[in-house]
Protein kinase domain-containing protein (Mariniblastus fucicola), 403 residues
Amino acid sequence: MNQRKNDDEILNEFESYRRSPRTSLHEFIRRCDPVASSDLQLKLLVRDLRLRLMAGQFPTAFNYEKHFPHFAKDIDKVVVSTVISIANGSMPVEECFGDLPRQIHGYDVLHNVGRDWVSVHYDAIQSSLQRKVRLRVLLFPTEDTLSRASLVAKLEHPNCESIVDVFQTDSAFVIASQLETGSSIAEIMVERLDSITSRQIVQWIRGAAEALLEMHRRDIAHLSVSPSKILSRFNGEAVLINPLFEQPLERVDGVLSDDLCQQLPFPYRSIRKATDSSIDHVREDTIALGLVLFQLLTKLPLENFYLNPPLPEESMRLKKLIADQLNYSSSIDPTLKALCLRSTLGVINDFAPCSLLELRNELHDWERRFDVLQCRKSEANDSHSPKGSRRKSVTRGFPWFSG
């Protein structure tokens, strides 16, 4: 008499079974002996979903509801919780290759340094060149993601992160980037907010806009523009880092649930509507950059805004916050205030919007006017100094004033 298999044995057997090209969860459960209980079926469903997601496949809730109607009311929660579990808990290098440090594909992987919604980040040394790099191991490695990463790797732009390699090793899909030096705008806002000048703000936002324009020309959206994704190099120029390339949640769930919206990267959960059938990512990148400009001009980090529980009409709260802060502030440069309003509320409400190209161009014009004005002020100050007076006296033919 065969010994009954426990749930863990059946789950492991299913993982082996799933490696076959012609497999389905429904077929496996149908062939189970003994017949799988409802509890085990749900465990198998979660395991199947997790395996598919981590292989870059995105089944919808409907795919499961068809064969498991008795789980219909639970499917959405299972999908959401599984995606969040992968994004928050997976450690792909350690799980695939073992404890760090560890060499993979010509890189000495040193340690885990953080994560975003679609990848886990590691510091590493590229063995052949002995240079430090940042590895991003994808949690949802779709063909589209890898294709976009490869396109970004071909970019040669001073304000874009430099991707040096895109590769697969075993089951890990990895993007290797040149390690940028400098501080993120988010760090600067925490450490020395009062020292940020209007000239520096404009330089940062203009540089990030130029990076986004280059990405958009190649039909690539960043999808995660925020103060933490814009670094200020030591020369003051901005570099845009860590694009998401795509939002896997859009592929998993056609209508984003409240739970999923809570997990989306700042600031997207406040500017998109759950009923949108198609999302304009260029528009979203523009609004997101406008919101960074808003934070810098008002010195109001929006992370504080999100500490409060979101209301059903959270986008209305954000619009009111922007309007109140800008309309009643007398200390913000009028030109920059108008640009900020047009690139946020203007784009959101489609009223006198400012395109990304217009934003870049007008910021560039502001920089030039500001620099010319500063140069004239400097010259005027020099002319009133003792040395300036002596220089003028010589040119006018009064050499005895020259000393």
